[in-house]
Amino acid sequence: MIRLFEAVGRGVLGVFDALGRFFVLAGQTISGAVRPPFAIRATALQVARVGADSVPVVVLTALFTGGVLALQTFKGFSRFHAEGYIGSVVALSMLRELGPVLTGLMVTGRAGSAMAAELGSMRVTEQIDALVALATDPVQYLFVPRVLAGIVVVPMLVVLADVTGILGGYLVAVAYLGANPVVYVENTFQFLDLEDLTSGLIKAAAFGGLLSLIGCQTGFDTRGGAEGVGKSTTAAVVFGSLAILVADFFLTKVLF
Amino acid sequence: MNRSAEPAIRLAGLTKAFDRKGVLEGLDLTVAAGESVVVVGKSGTGKSVLLKHVIGLLKPDAGTVEIAGEDFWKAGRVRRDRIRRKFGMSFQEGALFDSMTVGENIAFPLARHTDKGPREIRERVAECLELVRLPGIEAKRPSELSGGMRRRVGFARAIALAPEILLFDEPTTGLDPITTDVIMRVIEELGNKLNPTTVTITHDLKVAFAIADRVALLHGGKIALALPPEEFAKSEDPHAAAFVRGDSALEPEDTPAPPSPPRGSATIGAVP
User: Is the Cβ–Cβ distance between A124 and A222 less than 8 Å?
Assistant: First the structure.
């Protein structure tokens, strides 16, 4: 019985430990971002890397999600003859919800895990110690360009996802379900507000920051050789995805 | 070079535990400016932990680290990085940044901490590679180098800023005898040309005797013994004798922790 309490206690302490560590490193990242040296080139490099890594997977995900949305809404809406609204539903769900969340999850799998693997292997080969020994703040040097890149790139990818998602819906509706192309396009933009787009982009920036920070942190705190790097990479994806889904709920509540 | 009355490095009462397991237990060590101290000891006695405390990669649970008379952990973040610039550290496997070329690795501290232009940096990089006897390999990637070469490039990066203190972590571990000899010669040459204070960690006594002004034995979380090489080799101390002769039968039973030597006896190189 005592052992059970001990295990529970240790688990709870572990969670608070990790949370505390997260906020400490987040604080160090922010303070590193606002003091020189400013890593403009390194950030640009990361933007290119994260972007290039993620474009194919984001495009494919969005294309099929848009398509399946059109199919599903057709199935439901045809029951009460509201097929004309499929375009609106696809566009609204992509912009407000699915674009940012799915992009966030995909970039976590692609770039967040890569960050964890890179920083993890730097940790186990003492490259991070070498940075400190060379009088360089490793959080500033490694985290700041990656987190900034995440915040900049994910919104860009979300715009791409929104466009391809709407295109996917259009293709399915027009080519497969026989919708009138002109009417479909008109319906798509009929109920859209600028705010639908901006709320999605704000979410996207938040997700980008979260997933890169978590990717960097799990890599940075890697322990124990190659096995540790593997664990960190997995943890980056699991915690990054969880963080995105939880943050999505709260951001939606605030932004609505 | 710093030849003031202050020792280059003074560790006092250094204590560090990992997961409640004590590694350093009140360790004292003083290194005079310009002195070469080699710390030897069995695997797992905390030699690397000791070295990481010297440059502030690890923060002691208790005790102080003084560099040229300045308490490292009482200094602020900016000041600590200033103190770290006095150091050059060479890591066990080189710890080269594998996203950069050899040249970029050596240029890294120069570009970050000096206002040298690209041409001056290039010249200094070439000079450092010359010093470790690897001229002209700037464009190579760390992955293209052998273990011994990686370590020497690590030396070159460590000396780029002409540091006052050089730290070597297991410079020859896992290398063949010939490469070991090359590395030892390079370390000797660096010592002669730059005249730094050096602390070297190794379990290779041949290396220790070749480059040390004093050899210190780390045992039970403390410096058990610190003597010039000739005296260390002849020492009657059972741990030292077991170590020198490589005979575990000579090693006394040492659980629990051995009686600590009287304070001060373990202080090496104290400036009179």
Answer: yes
Between CA B227 and CA B213 the distance in angstroms is 8
* Contacts with A, B 93-112, CB within 8 Å: 93, 95-98, 108-109, 112
- Whether A37 has its CB under 8 Å from any CB of chain B: the answer is yes
CB B90 within 8 A of CB B168: yes
Residue-wise pLDDT tens digits, B116-156:
899 999 999 999 998 888 888 999 999 999 888 999 899 99
Q: How far apart are CA B14 and CA B16, in angstroms?
A: 7
Neighbours of A228 (CB within 10 A): 17
Distance CA A43, CA A152 (A): 10
- Beta-carbon count within 10 A of B84 CB: 23
Q: What ipTM was assigned to the predicted interfaces of this complex?
A: 0.84
pTM score, two decimals? 0.85
Contact between B129 and B156 (Cβ < 8 Å): yes
Does any CB of chain B come closer than 8 Å to the CB of residue A137?
Answer: yes
* Residue B253, burial from CB neighbour count under 10 angstroms (0-12, 13-18, 19+): exposed
| Strand arrangement of the beta sheet that strand B62-67 belongs to | B21-31, B9-18, B62-67, B70-71
User: What's the burial of A253, exposed, middle or buried (CB within 10 Å: 0-12/13-18/19+)?
Assistant: exposed
Identity of residue B261: P
Give the pLDDT band of residue B261 (cuts 50, 70, 90).
Answer: very low
Say if the Cβ atoms of A133 and B92 lie within 8 Å.
no
What are the tokens at A10? Answer: 């240790």
Antiparallel, parallel or unpaired: β B214-219 and B222-227 = antiparallel
Distance from CA of A180 to the nearest CA of B (A): 53
- Rounded to whole angstroms, how far apart are CA atoms A109 and A124? 22
Which of A152-156, A220-224, B65-69, B265-269 ranks highest by mean pLDDT? A152-156
Read off the pLDDT of residues A29-71 as tens digits, 9 standing for 90 and up.
998 888 888 888 889 999 999 998 899 999 999 999 999 999 9
Residue B17, number of CB atoms within 10 A of its CB: 13
The phi, psi pair for B176, rounded to 5°, reads: -70, 165
pLDDT in tens, B216-247: 998 888 888 888 888 888 888 888 888 888 87
Which two tokens mark A32?
């590193």
Residue B209 phi/psi, 5° resolution? -70, -30
CA–CA dist B91, B94 (Å, integer): 5
